[in-house]
Amino acid sequence: MKRRAFITLLGGAAAWPLAARAQQPAMPVIGFIYVGSAATSGSHVAAFREGLNESGYIEGHNVTIAYRWAEGRQDRYPELVADLIRQKVSVIATGANTLASRAAKAATSTIPIVFGVADDPVKLGLVASLASPGGNATGINFFFAELAAKRLGLLREMVPSATRVGVLINPVNATTTESTVKDVQAAAGAHAVPATYSQRDYIEAGGLMSYGVNVADAYRHIGVYAGRILKGEKPADLPVVQSSKFELVINVQTARTLGLDVPPPLLALADEVIE
Length: 275
Description:
alpha/beta; Rossmann fold; 3-stranded mixed beta sheet; 10 helices
């Protein structure tokens, strides 16, 4: 073999690893929209990653997550969704937020969407049916709105003498607001009670009592579905998950501060009691 040909052959062999690396497909990117900030997302993002891991995806290893933080500004959702679409992400995960989910659905009919919503996704126009979503979106229903009457009933056990009800709602989210007010009014008609919370986060921050889904577990489901879609499954064929893991959390220290004695039967029902 001539020397020049031998050098050329060696040069080509040395380039093989570079060529192989250049042909490696880029990691898929999941766009993740969160209502708050990175500083407040800890347990929810960790649960989302856990779900991805269950589906075989590890951030930084075989998937990239493009985080978009709304910082509490709900008017930013269309802007954040548009940014992710420009980035050509493989999946958009909207977390536990109805407005972000609807913004994503309105912006794209092609990019798969995994949502978390507080109300019936069929009524919200996100899917054709729970069993067969039929479009580019699927996810989990958190049942925030549907549990309003149950929370009122539990709080009645805590404060049976209450005669006025305070209900905090977000009028921007018209659909959820309508459902919540309707359910609360129906429940209050049987016996007037004060308001309570839908998530344990508020109780950890000093609230009295909450009853609702385990939000971290719901984020895990979102991660699982995002991973399954990356593997080739279609949102149209993935049934909407109905939350089945609920928890009652009571802060007895707050109860004492308010001069309330938590009834023993109610304490016995609690999944967690914060002292």
